[in-house]
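Inverse folding, one chain.
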C-alpha cells in the first residue's frame, strides 16, 4: 500500500493526514484516520489490478461480512453504475437504510473507467458538518432521535422495519421518507424538512476520487455521501463493499 489520506474538503485544501510507507498496524491506522473530521480516507496503491483485493481485504478488516445476501435488499458486495436511471445516488444519502443494521463501513473501488469522464469525485458529508450549521437542530434532533420511521414501505413483501432517522445509526434516504414527511405527525414532518434543508445547505463536504489505483473508505454511520453529478448513464462502474452490517436481523461481529 503506497499511501493513506483523508479526503479533501471541497472549496479548500485541508492539510492531509498521511501514513506512508510501512504500517506497524494497518487496521489501527485506518480506523484512526476514519475517526478524523472527514470520516473518510483514500487508499492508494501502485497496481490497478489489485483493486478487487484491496477492496475485499479492507472491508474484511473493518467489519463482519459473513451474512448471506438478502434476495431483495442485497448484500455486502455489489456493482454500482454511475449515472443510473433515477440518479438518486447523486443526492446526499446513507447506505442500507432498509437494512436491519446499516453497514458501518463502505469501501469503493473502480471496476470500469469511462474515458469520457475526468476523475469525478464522490462527496462525503459528515453529520457533524450538518449539525453545526443547522438552526434549531437541538429541538429537531430530539424528535428525530425517537420517532421511528417505516423504512421498508417500498418493500411490501418484507417484514417492516422501524427505526429513527437520527437514532444510534443515522439513516437518510429522501425517497423512503415521503410518507412520513407528507402524512406523518406534524412535529416529525417539520423536523425532517428542517434536516433536509440543513443537508441541502451544507457548504463544506469532503471529496475523493475513486480511480484505478485509489480506493475510498468512509464511515456510513457518521456521514452521508453522494456520487458525482453525471447527467447520462456511464460505463464507469464501482465495486461497493459494505462491512459491519446486516440486511436481516441476525448477529454481526464487532465494528
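Residues assigned per position:
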Amino acid at each position: 500500500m503506497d499511501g493513506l489520506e483523508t479526503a479533501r474538503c471541497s472549496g479548500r485544501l485541508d492539510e492531509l493526514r498521511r501514513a506512508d510507507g510501512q504500517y506497524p498496524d494497518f487496521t489501527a491506522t485506518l480506523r484512526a484516520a476514519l475517526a478524523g473530521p472527514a470520516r473518510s480516507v483514500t487508499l492508494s496503491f501502485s497496481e490497478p489490478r489489485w483493486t478487487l483485493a484491496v477492496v475485499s481485504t479492507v472491508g474484511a478488516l473493518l467489519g463482519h461480512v459473513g451474512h448471506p445476501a438478502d434476495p431483495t435488499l442485497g448484500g455486502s458486495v455489489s456493482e454500482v453504475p454511475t449515472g443510473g436511471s433515477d440518479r438518486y445516488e447523486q443526492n446526499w444519502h446513507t447506505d442500507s437504510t432498509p437494512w436491519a443494521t446499516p453497514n458501518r463501513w463502505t469501501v469503493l473501488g473502480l471496476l470500469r473507467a469511462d474515458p469520457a469522464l475526468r476523475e469525478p469525485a464522490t462527496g462525503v458529508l459528515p453529520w457533524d458538518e450538518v449539525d453545526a450549521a443547522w438552526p434549531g437542530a437541538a429541538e429537531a434532533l430530539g424528535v428525530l432521535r425517537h420517532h421511528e420511521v417505516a423504512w421498508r414501505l417500498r418493500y411490501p413483501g418484507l417484514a417492516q422495519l422501524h427505526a429513527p432517522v437520527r437514532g444510534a445509526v443515522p439513516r437518510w434516504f429522501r425517497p423512503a421518507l415521503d410518507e412520513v414527511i407528507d402524512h406523518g405527525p406534524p412535529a416529525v414532518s417539520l423536523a425532517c424538512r428542517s434536516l433536509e434543508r440543513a443537508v441541502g445547505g451544507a457548504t463544506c463536504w469532503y471529496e475523493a476520487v475513486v480511480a484505478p489505483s485509489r480506493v475510498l473508505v468512509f464511515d456510513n454511520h457518521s456521514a452521508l455521501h453522494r456520487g458525482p453529478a453525471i447527467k447520462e448513464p456511464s460505463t464507469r462502474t464501482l465495486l461497493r463493499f459494505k462491512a459491519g452490517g446486516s440486511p436481516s436481523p441476525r448477529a454481526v461481529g464487532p465494528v
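The chain is about 20% helix and 20% strand. Helices lie at 26-34, 51-62, 127-132, 137-144, 178-183, 186-200.
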